[in-house]
């Protein structure tokens, strides 16, 4: 048997590779892509109901967009540095490269989720324009929102129509699916605008500052470790940023940077074969000993112990 190539970096899973991470083996449900004949599948797109989904997932990265819709029940979602509770009528959005994890799926939970690659909509919208057109997919956007009953019903209807289109497998079903996805995104954008998320910066600078800071840290934490760097990007003083973060979260701004480092380290330890020394180097620590001290201080265990527990668990 040929030796397995060591995984050096945190994997960014594609659609095919990630399926085993979010679906239970042997699931017999028949919605969307689940147990769908290969001939009926559409490149760059997948659709599922939560029946047969794993209760826990991540932290990991993916190279596609994700839309998750909760019809009932509760689950906990973590995107970068932000933690959210999915409840009835909640919809969330994940973009490529984001650290994502899920846990605490309630027994009565049910919903839908669809996944699509950036190029999937290129006949309608250029891949690099997706975050601009649909701001909930952008770093500066709000990735969670609550739908009204009517909005939830309309969104679920789109999911059901997509499922029917997949199952019928009629000529032109790939084009129809692209149009359904785009129309769903337009409906969700209308809800986003209705709820005024695009006005947060103008109306409440303090409320805007905290989520924007967290998103910037999620994007730049490997190369920017000083609060002053983020204060400059946000157009405020470091003291003002620290006060705002502490007032809204109870923690300092520097703790958010450390938290993101811990999450990245955990993903590398869990999903790669990279040595502790190499992970220390990837995370820009001066030496492995410093990384070990940092990790143990923040988590209570060493990186090696965390890796062994992750593998055995």
UniProtKB/TrEMBL annotation:
Coiled-coil region(s): none
Domain annotation HTH araC/xylS-type: ranges: 211-309
Keywords annotated in UniProt: DNA-binding, Transcription, Transcription regulation
Gene Ontology molecular function terms on file: DNA-binding transcription factor activity; sequence-specific DNA binding
InterPro entries registered for this protein in UniProt: Homeodomain-like_sf, HTH-like, HTH_AraC
PANTHER family given in the database record: ARAC-FAMILY TRANSCRIPTIONAL REGULATOR (PTHR43280), TRANSCRIPTIONAL REGULATORY PROTEIN (PTHR43280:SF32)
Protein name as annotated: AraC-type DNA-binding protein
Organism: Chitinophaga eiseniae
